[in-house]
Amino acid sequence: MPTVLDAGSCILRPFRPGDEESVARHANDRRVAIQLRDRFPHPYTIDDAHEWVSAASTLDPVTTFAITLPGDDDETIGGIGLLPGSDIERIAAEVGYWLGVRFWNRGLTTAALRAITAYGFETLALERIFALPFATNVASVRVLEKAGYQREGLLRRSAIKEGVVMDQAVYAKIREYGSTGVREYGSTGVTVA
């Protein structure tokens, strides 16, 4: 049974064959691509979509999800995913997301971010989830803040997009524990109290 996350206003499900056309249609917009890493191409072709869906649909555990609307599971309107760290940083993951322009300003990305954050903490046992939006990407910063992420700092002149050197904001959410599972951090590492 595939992992499906119900975010209320949207559904997150694994990418699957057949998603390529709607992925290419919604991803092929400069307003989307300009805010993302260069590995998200523009123009975004059907071949790009085939390559992405092929790679994303085989992930185990699932860390990348198609964003769909309730009642319309066949149209992928965006994507959201966690990129887990490795070695000593394996308890953290970077989150990234995009949404087709026609679906902006509806709270869908915030809902998707809340859902994948809970999944990351509860299912993947992550301790920290972070994002590095361009400091000028006010919409993404608002999404992160509405989802409970805290600004941790600014990476000055840390990225380049279309020849422009840019700052990246650092936002993160840390896993919270109840009174029976508080973790204390000491000089020797993590201990469970």
Written overview of the protein:
This protein is an alpha+beta fold. The chain has a single domain, classed as Gcn5-related N-acetyltransferase (GNAT) (Aminopeptidase). Helix content is 24%, strand content 32%. The protein has five helices and ten strands. Strands 1-2-3-4-5-6-8-7 form an eight-stranded mixed β-sheet, with helices on both faces. Strands 9-10 form a two-stranded antiparallel sheet. β5, α4 and β6 form a beta-alpha-beta unit. α1 packs across α3. The radius of gyration is 17 Å and the shape is globular. The C terminus is likely disordered.
Describe the secondary structure blueprint for this structure.
Elements: E1 5-6, E2 11-14, H1 20-27, H2 30-33, H3 46-56, E3 64-68, E4 78-84, E5 92-99, H4 108-122, E6 128-131, H5 138-146, E7 150-161, E8 164-174, E9 183-186, E10 189-192
Parallel strand pairs: 5-6
Antiparallel strand pairs: 1-2, 2-3, 3-4, 4-5, 6-8, 7-8, 9-10
Sum up the structure in keywords.
alpha+beta; globular; disordered C terminus; 5 helices; Aminopeptidase
How would you classify the quaternary structure? single chain
Strand-residue proportion: 25-35%
Structural class: alpha+beta
Q: What is the number of beta strands?
A: 10
Could you tell me the radius of gyration in angstroms? 17 Å
Under the CATH scheme, the architecture is 3-Layer(aba) Sandwich
State the shape. Answer: globular
